[in-house]
Design goal:
single chain; 431 residues; alpha+beta; Beta-Lactamase; Alpha-Beta Plaits; 3 domains; five-stranded mixed β-sheet; four-stranded antiparallel β-sheet; 14% strand
């Protein structure tokens, strides 16, 4: 009965409380009957005294409860062997590791063959059922020991070292179930080993609070998240004799501080710190990608009017605020993926519009123009612009930039006398 419960526990199958009570009640009754057999002979029809020999004991008739005991014992054995075999077969199919299933199957087949020979061919001195039971139990013990106990023992030999690591770690078994975790890992993510979580389930849970990556090669593929910890995850498979894989050891290095530092450097490298738009360095990076991938795109080049006048009459802080206001307008129109805003330097800006048609670029200009309607001249944002496209051409971005710049200066020549009006107003506001 204990073995039956152990097998159910091993294959993660629960047994209802009522069945546990019935089995334990039967076990207690059987124990009482065994020790009081001489009173009622329900186990063996023999009175225990000094005259009972081994020969008599072997040939004595069995009582009614003995047959009930045999029926129940063999039924439980058949059930747990079938359940265990099915479980090992599923594991073998999933992991391509059939050794445990074959090992147990060979033991069972040997037992059936021995009993068949014992009944119909040759009578053994020792009961083959007993021998089979010992062999099967030994095999099951070996499977349990190699798969689980030895794994934990191997870990516990280094218990002191592991639990004094600053890194967090977990251990999963051959079925990818988490069987051990460091105390720091448990406390940080509030997990319980007894939940029998798979590694994938655990990873989904901790990714709500952490960014997990296995290599630093592709760190640019995700955005640094200040609200999460960043773990560099390293894994090592645990190999044991006769098994394809006994488990995996996962080590989590807390890389948050380093990634925050790297992210800051990357941001400074690719962004204009005053306007928070992308800068010319970023343009050089994306230029290579766009030319290489031959993507369809438009460029809108902007030259912000009046910056020098704001600087001369109201100071450089007012000029900076003018740049920031215009940068926010461009940022609001962009999605940082298909519409990318860039400050080229000074009062020059650029929008890169990827995989959109010409009308989209013109709509952006209309949107910007509409925001100047009915506003005082000091609150408006005047600019010159030029549009160029690489559609149906093999031109490089350098050529497209040159065309946008040329288009911008043609439009600038046709502009009204905005600067004269602005200078007249600013001269009266000069401090």
């Amino acid at each position: 009965m204990t073995m039956f419960f152990a097998v159910l526990r091993y294959i993660n199958k629960d047994i209802k409380l009522v069945y546990k009570i019935i089995l334990w009640f039967f076990f207690i009754i059987e124990g009482v009957l065994s020790f009081t057999n001489s009173s009622h002979q329900l186990m063996l029809q023999v009175v225990a005294d000094n005259t009972v020999t081994f020969g008599i004991f072997k040939t004595v008739k069995a009582g009614s409860f003995f047959y009930l005991h045999i029926t129940l014992a063999y039924s439980l054995m058949v059930i747990f062997i079938c359940l265990l075999g099915n479980n090992l077969l599923k594991k073998g199919t999933k992991n391509s590791d059939y050794f445990p299933f074959l090992f147990v199957s060979i033991g069972v087949i040997f037992g059936l063959a021995a009993n068949f020979i014992h009944l119909f061919v040759y009578t053994f001195t020792v009961d083959p059922t007993f021998i089979t039971f010992v062999i099967v139990i030994s095999i099951i013990y070996y499977v349990f020991y190699m798969r689980d106990i030895k794994l934990i023992l191997g870990l516990n030999r280094n218990y002191f070292i592991l639990n004094n690591l600053r890194e967090k770690y977990i251990l999963v078994d051959d079925n990818n179930i988490v069987v051990y975790a460091s105390s720091m890992f448990i406390e940080l993510f509030d997990i319980r080993i007894e939940e029998q979580l798979s590694f994938n389930e655990l990873k989904k849970r901790i990714e709500k609070e952490a960014v997990i990556y296995e290599s630093s090669v592709n760190l640019n593929d995700f955005q640094f998240n200040e609200n999460k910890v960043h773990f560099n995850m390293q894994s090592r498979e645990i190999d044991l004799p006769f098994y394809k894989k006994a488990g995996t050891f996962y080590l989590f290095y807390d890389d948050t501080a380093s990634q925050k530092y790297i992210n800051s450097i990357q941001y400074i490298k690719t962004h204009d710190l005053m306007t928070e738009l992308y800068n010319r360095n970023y343009l050089e990076e994306i230029r290579v990608i766009l030319d290489k991938n031959d993507k369809h795109y438009h460029l809108i080049m902007f030259d912000l009017d009046g910056l020098k006048l704001f600087n001369d009459y109201l100071g450089h802080q007012a000029g900076d605020q003018l740049l920031i206001r215009f940068a926010k307008k461009l940022s609001n129109l962009s999605d940082h993926k298909n519409v990318i805003p860039i400050r080229l330097g000074g009062d020059e800006f650029l929008l890169i519009i990827i995989n959109r048609d010409q009308n989209y670029a013109e709509e952006i200009i209309k949107t910007l123009d509409s925001q100047n309607i009915d506003k005082p001249i000091l609150e408006t944002l005047h600019y010159s612009y030029g549009i160029a496209t690489n559609k149906n051409t093999n031109k490089t971005m350098d050529r497209i930039l040159s065309e946008a710049d040329h288009d911008m200066y043609k439009r600038k020549l046709r502009k009204d006398n905005y600067k004269e009006k602005l200078q007249a107003i600013l001269s009266n506001k000069k401090i």
